[in-house]
Amino acid sequence: MALAGGKEVLLVGRLVVGIAVGLSSMAVPMYVSESAPVAIRGRLVTLTASIITLGALVASLVCGALSDVGEGWRWMLGLGAAPAALQLIGFTFMPETPRFLVSRGRNEQARQVLRRLRGDGAHVQHEYETIKADFDAQEALLREKAAAGGATRRALLAGCCLQMFQQVSGVNTVVYYSASIITLAGVRDASTAIWLSSITNLLSFLAKFVGLALVERAGRRPILLWSALGSAMALLLLGAGFQVSASASPADLAAGPVNGSCLPIVSSYNSSAAAGRCADAAALGVDGLTWAPDWCPTDYAWLPITGMFFYITLYSPGLGAMPWTITSEIFPLWARSTCISITTAVNWFFNLLVSLTFLTLTHAITRQGTFYLFCGCTAAGLAVFFMAVPETRGVRLEEMPALFSQPWGLHAPRRAPADRPKLQPYDNEAYDPS
Q1: Which of 180, 245, 399, 414 is the most exposed place for a label (fewest CB within 10 A)?
Q2: pTM score over 0.85
Q3: So where are the chain's domains?
Q4: For 196-245, what is each residue's pLDDT tens digit?
Q5: Which fold has domain 12-69+76-89+154-246+298-419?
Q6: Which residues of 183-268 form beta strands (DSSP E)?
């Protein structure tokens, strides 16, 4: 992409990178959850989401530094090859997951990998036997055509809802269009908008550590629900910020110096002389007219920007991280790869849908209307999560089908947390799942 001589080559490069990111977003959480000890599984999967956000922060800072460089976009894209090359080298030294090896009959290799992952002196026999017994039981059920598919379908529905509502909350309009939102709010300088957008990535990175600190203490479900509630309120503030800006914006000079509002017309402006309705200041009798094709001068530009910052801070620890953590845990071994692939595809489909329609929506229902719509979607997601998503903290992967066999909306643990032995990160003998 950095060496592209035209838009066609650049587009092909973007497609290749998109396929690669899609594959990794499916494989990485699954790999981590299958390899991690149960006591720190959620923390490790959440950590991967935090580090992804760190990468986005670094990328935004690099883009800000290169924003005034001639053809800086080539450097922005080309520098991404460095971390990808480091990953390629590092991944060659990583073993397959023990659960995958068991599913392929490579039992002794699975024991060796468990010893390698848990460290010298760890008692891995009980963990290995639990994995093996669960796989054998599932194989027997499948052979008898009596597998408990209902629990798996419930888990798949919950996973798809988690990934769908993560996207229809509008997060990628903030991630992808943060500089555009800042410009739409009234910040005119492009370089300044890019630097301000890096604050969004910084807040996302810092907020994810809240989820990282609480995921094994408070649990996945409370973090998810509170984050969804906070995100809906922040989106309401973001929409209200644009609405206040619209009411306080200068007049629509196309209809006369005092008639109409700036915001509804700038979204349809074209900066060409033929279509620019405010291009001829002398004809309108207005001095000092400023052409604003995609922003609106207002004293309230800080309101939508503040709403955006609140949104990303409240979204990141729960709605941003927990869907990946939960969907990496809830599927049985025989269906895990397929189900995680499906939920990841749902995520990227709605990512694409929201990203493609964002600018169209701002034209059709105004900027404030678009964020009110995202607020409503997030509130709907909160209701769905309350009914369909159970708490998975401290539940072994082999126990998940029983968890999703409970009635809808009943998510109390089968045993109170106080009755469960306290698990240490590498304690494979402390908890008897029977």
Answers
A1: 414
A2: no
A3: 12-69+76-89+154-246+298-419, 95-147, 251-297
A4: 777 877 888 888 888 888 888 888 999 999 999 999 999 999 888 888 87
A5: Growth Hormone; Chain: A; (1.20.1250)
A6: none
